[in-house]
Design goal:
The protein has eleven helices and seven strands. It is elongated and about 105 Å long.
């Protein structure tokens, strides 16, 4: 009996030892063969991602339309697209202490994010330095940021060109504080943050509409980076409040089987719903219907503009709040209701919704499904510049 147990023990020991050795060899081979990092050439398909996703390593160039570029040749367009994809491959998002989300610095020939995490505009003219400069801050989302176009053809860059021609006695300095996914709540926070860090500008411009309606109404009323931030914090808290529920072992994405699964196209998902609870709820709590959420979006926008105006008045800043033109939403009921509601309750907000009506179909206005082309930014800059010239005297 004892000898039989010894024999059985040896068999089991050999099996366990061989299994461990085989697993170790398999892990070692997988670790050597499978890349430790994401292959920059194997980017996520941006056309297959749900609207509102904040991702990394997207192939943004897949969504851009080459014929929409009126002021760049094919080589320049290719370089610009390469830079957008390269920015994504470098992990272009980072946490901002007051707004939740901002961009990482990036340097390219046509696409540049400076060390303060803002898109670079054209350098100011050096021929107009006799008098004090006229400083303009511009806030908005990806359309103001200039998604898909070069630094020279963002709306702030083109507005600087237009205003310089209209105010030849002053050097015009337009700062681009547009960040993709931002809506008026984040713009208000960024406006206040910048006032603490810099001298106040002469003019502050806010361009909104798309994210107020699409992101808030169709998705939710939270900051774009809230889910991963909330998940990270809740996981930290759970280590103390729920220690008995914590896993013994956690496997990170660099674990060889996880990397092999990604190489094979197997999606490994984790619980990402833990953050959706009342402690992270905002003003949409209980608002289930689109109409209810639309009213809340308009209300929040109007509150934010009221706060911005009060702060700007105290700092002697001329402010302009614009509702942006959206060619693809010209007949959208939600967007048109939002425009009417805002204009009715705050007549100082300027509706630019008809800016492209005379050019629709004649020129390519969008560089993808959503964002302005280079010629569209020049048209919009001309209109905004004319409004400022008619109402602002340095």
């Amino acid at each position: 009996m004892w000898k039989q147990l010894q024999r059985l023990y040896k068999i089991i020991a050999y099996m366990v030892l061989n299994t461990i050795i085989l697993l170790a060899l398999a892990l070692l081979i997988t670790d050597v063969v499978v890349p430790r990092t994401f292959n920059p050439e194997e980017k996520q398909d941006i056309t297959a991602v749900n609207w509102g996703a904040v991702g990394v390593n997207f192939a943004y160039s897949q969504a851009f339309i080459a014929d929409s570029y009126q002021y760049m040749d094919n080589d320049a367009i290719s370089q610009l697209w390469f830079e957008y994809d390269s920015m994504a491959a470098e992990g272009h998002w980072q946490v901002h202490p007051w707004t939740g989300l901002t961009l990482r610095p990036f340097s390219g020939q046509y696409l540049n994010i400076d060390e303060n995490d803002y898109r670079q505009s054209l350098p100011p003219s050096q021929e107009h330095t006799d008098n004090s400069p006229l400083r303009v801050w511009m806030f908005g989302g990806s359309t103001l940021f200039g998604w898909g176009v070069s630094d020279a053809y963002t709306l702030p860059s083109q507005l600087q060109v237009q205003l310089q021609a209209s105010y030849p006695d002053h050097q015009i300095q337009v700062s681009n504080f547009g960040i993709p996914w931002y809506f008026s709540s984040q713009e208000l926070a960024l406006f206040v943050t910048n006032l603490r860090l810099q001298d106040p500008p002469d003019i502050a411009i806010f361009l909104d509409g798309l994210n107020e309606v699409q992101y808030l109404v169709m998705e939710n009323n939270q900051l774009s980076l809230l889910p991963p931030l909330a998940l990270a914090w809740e996981a930290q808290i759970a280590q103390f409040t729920q220690p008995e529920e914590q896993p013994w072992v956690s496997l990170n994405p660099s674990f060889p089987p996880n990397r092999l699964a990604r190489q094979l196209g197997i999606e490994i998902t984790y619980d990402n719903e833990a953050w959706r609870n009342n402690r992270y709820a905002h003003s949409f709590t209980g608002a289930r219907e689109v109409g209810d959420r639309l009213e809340i979006a308009a209300r929040d926008y109007l509150h934010n503009q009221r706060i911005i105006s009060a702060i700007a008045q105290d700092y002697d800043i001329a402010t302009y709040a614009f509702i942006q033109p959206l060619p693809f939403w010209r007949d959208d009921n939600n967007y048109n209701w939002f425009r009417r509601e805002v204009m009715q309750k705050n007549p100082t907000v300027i509706d630019l919704g008809d800016t492209f009506d005379d050019t629709a179909g004649d020129v390519p206005l969008l560089v993808d499904r959503t964002h302005y082309s280079d010629i569209a930014t020049t048209i919009l800059a001309e209109k905004i510049a004319q409004i400022i010239v008619d109402t602002y005297k340095p």
